[in-house]
Design goal:
binds the ligand NC[C@H]1CCC[C@@H](CNc2ccc(C(N)=O)cn2)C1, elongated, five-stranded parallel beta sheet, two-stranded antiparallel ribbon, 9 helices, 38% helix, alpha/beta
C-alpha cells in the first residue's frame, strides 16, 4: 500500500512515521509513504504557498500552483491513484472506509491544507474529500495521519500478531472489550477471575459479552445485523441488566 502526502510541514508527517505499528510496517516495506513539501513546488524566491483572498476577508488562502505542480510531478509515473483532500466538508471517515481504501489498493495521495483553505480550483484535481470528524484542525496533516494509520493496520503483517487485526473489535463492528495485565490486584481492584481461569472458550465468550455491553452502553447504533449467537449473548446481557 502506497501513500503520498502533500504538505507544507513534512516533519509533522515524518516524525509520526518513525514510531510503532506504522514505523515497523514502513521498515518492513509492506507500506510506503512519500512526503512532498509543497514549497519544493513553488517558483518564486520566497517559496510562497499562500496569498491574500480575492473578495477580501481575514487570513490567507493556499495557492493552487504548488499543489498543481506537485500533483503533475507525482502523476508523471502514470500509476493509478486516489487524490484525497482532507477537510471538514468531506465524507465522514470510518473503519468501513479504511477497509474500502485498503481493498482498492490504489496509491492514496493525501492533500493537506492549512490557513483558511486551498484555492477552490484544487477540486478539479481531487477525487474525493474526506473528513475525520466534525471539527476544524489547523491543518489536514493530523487527518492524513489518521487515514494512513488506520489503513496500514489492515495490511497483513503490519500488526505483530495477525489475530489482533481481525480481533480488533471495530473490525467486527463493536466497541472493544476490557483489557487487563499484571498486577492481578491494583489499589483493591482485581482482574476478573475468568481471565485467570485459562478456559479460553469461556474467556472468548466473556470478551464478546463485554464488547456487547460496552457497545450497548456507548454506541447502541452499532448494534445492527447481529448474528444469532451475538443476539443470544445480548439478550442474556439485557436480562442481567434488568434484574
Ligand atoms: N476551512 C478550514 C479548512 C480549510 C482547508 C484546510 C483544512 C485543514 N484542517 C482540517 C482538515 C480536515 C479536518 C477534518 N475534520 O477532517 C479538519 N480540519 C481547514
Amino acid at each position: 500500500m502506497k501513500f503520498e502526502v502533500l504538505t507544507i510541514f513534512p516533519e509533522v508527517i515524518e516524525c509520526y512515521l518513525k514510531h510503532g505499528v506504522v514505523g515497523r510496517a514502513l521498515n518492513k516495506g509492506i507500506a510506503e509513504v512519500k512526503v512532498y513539501n509543497l514549497r519544493d513546488f513553488t517558483t518564486d524566491r520566497h517559496r510562497k504557498v499562500d496569498d491574500y483572498p480575492y473578495g477580501g476577508g481575514a487570513g490567507m488562502v493556499m495557492q493552487i500552483e504548488p499543489f498543481y505542480n506537485a500533483l503533475r510531478h507525482i502523476k508523471s509515473d502514470g500509476i493509478p491513484r486516489k487524490v484525497i483532500l482532507l477537510s471538514p466538508q468531506g465524507r465522514r471517515f470510518s473503519q468501513r472506509i479504511a477497509k474500502e481504501f485498503y481493498k482498492e489498493e490504489k496509491t492514496l495521495t493525501l492533500i493537506c491544507g492549512r490557513y483558511e483553505g486551498i484555492d477552490e480550483r484544487i477540486k478539479a484535481f481531487v477525487d474525493e474529500e474526506i473528513s475525520i470528524g466534525d471539527y476544524v484542525l489547523s491543518g489536514g496533516e493530523l487527518a492524513a495521519l489518521v487515514i494512513i494509520d488506520s489503513v496500514v493496520r489492515l495490511i497483513p503483517g503490519a500488526l505483530g500478531d495477525e489475530l489482533s487485526a481481525e480481533e480488533d473489535s471495530f473490525m467486527k463492528g463493536f466497541l472493544d472489550y476490557p483489557h487487563y495485565t499484571r498486577p492481578e490486584e491494583f489499589e483493591g481492584m482485581r482482574v476478573p477471575d475468568i481471565l485467570l481461569s485459562g478456559d479460553h472458550k469461556k474467556i472468548a465468550l466473556w470478551r464478546k459479552k463485554e464488547a456487547l455491553r460496552n457497545t450497548l452502553k456507548n454506541r447502541p447504533d452499532l448494534l445492527k445485523n447481529l448474528s444469532a449467537e451475538d443476539m443470544k449473548i445480548l439478550k442474556e446481557l439485557c436480562s442481567e441488566i434488568n434484574k
